[in-house]
Write a structure and sequence with these properties.
Helices cover 19% and strands 26% of the residues. The protein has 329 residues and is α/β, with parallel strands linked by helices. It is globular and about 60 Å long.
């Protein structure tokens, strides 16, 4: 579906009735005083495929309205992600594009942070389908829930790949930087943002001195283009190539908000309920049922706790010297 945009002069619905979530409010109660969801949008609210859970939408709307009222955002659309849902494009996705001025709602797939397994020290790795571990530590490769703003973009050359008609094609990937606040405040330091779920793998070095991307010796990397829209990331939000192009074009030089659920307070509350033998819904909380059954209980790894562990692990397990990339045959 092609999104249509309203002029910037058109104001969003209910912008005057802004309510801000109290930072320490219990997760089950934190959305009660927010503005009513517009009637057209309520049909998209729920936990079925292609729908957005009510607390996720309410928090995303609250963040967006707050940033609009502050004059930080003028974009007619905002984003949300529910990282408690399965990472399965077939179920309708879990990244949401909401444009209230044009009454447009779209869902696309998105990856979550892979986490890491520090053998014998700490295992905070995530499976492909459901995320169990979340956190904001440097080099943790974990997704951090909370509030973000989209910022500048940067396009970099990732290598050549064999395209149609056996022609080598340069792959240029654009990275959309996120800035956060609170627990997501170190997003820039962690290089957290959004990009296409694609990379050039199995690289060898090909002689091509005429290429604008050639190194000093006249070589360029050549490999296979691999797309992993249903895979995991290093903590970033990743989309299919076509979705990434559209999303990034929407916010280029026109920032907007992104709210990612869950935050640490949600994770702690759900984990506490699970320890007491209660389901999230029984405790008045939200977590996707399918993933809750798979992970049993989520965990948040704070940077204060996890960063020293990662730093010490690096000291105890120094990376081996980089191997030279082979020359293409």
């Amino acid at each position: 579906m092609r999104l249509k945009y309203a002029p910037r002069s058109i104001k969003m619905l209910s912008l005057c009735s802004v309510a801000i979530i109290v930072a320490n409010a219990p997760p089950a109660l934190a959305t009660e005083q927010l503005p009513d969801i517009p009637t057209w949008l309520t049909t998209h609210v729920g936990q079925a495929d292609g729908q957005i859970a009510r607390p996720v939408l309410q928090r995303a709307r609250s963040l967006y309205m707050r940033k609009v009222s502050e004059g930080t955002v003028r974009n007619p659309c905002y984003f949300a992600m529910d990282a408690t849902r399965p990472n399965d494009p077939a179920d309708g996705g879990r990244f949401y594009i909401v444009c209230e001025a044009t009454q447009t709602f779209r869902v696309v797939s998105s990856g979550h942070g892979s986490g890491r397994d520090l053998k014998g020290v700490a295992d905070f790795g995530n499976g492909r389908m459901c995320a169990k571990n979340f956190g904001n530590a440097m080099d943790s490769n974990l997704t951090t829930g909370g509030s973000y703003l989209t910022e500048e973009t940067k396009t970099t050359f990732k290598g050549y790949y064999r395209g149609s008609q056996a022609k080598d094609t340069a792959y240029l990937r654009t990275f959309l930087q996120f800035d956060g606040e609170g627990e997501t405040a170190n997003a820039r330091q962690r290089a957290i943002g959004g990009h296409a779920a694609a990379k050039v793998a199995g690289v060898c070095m090909k002689k091509d001195p005429q290429s604008p991307y050639a190194n000093r010796e006249g070589y360029v990397p050549l490999g296979k283009l691999v797309e992993y829209a249903g895979g995991r990331s290093d903590g970033c939000t990743s989309w299919s190539a076509s979705d990434a192009n559209q999303i990034i074009s929407m916010v280029k030089d026109n920032p907007t908000t992104l709210y990612i659920y869950p935050e640490s307070k949600d994770i702690s509350a759900v984990a506490k309920a699970a320890a007491a033998g209660r389901s999230p819904s029984q405790a008045g909380l939200y977590w996707n049922d399918t993933c809750m059954k798979q992970i049993r209980a989520p965990k948040f790894w704070s940077k204060e706790t996890l960063e020293p562990v990662i730093v010490q692990y690096k000291k105890d397990h120094p990376a081996p010297p980089a191997r030279p990339i082979p020359i293409c045959e």
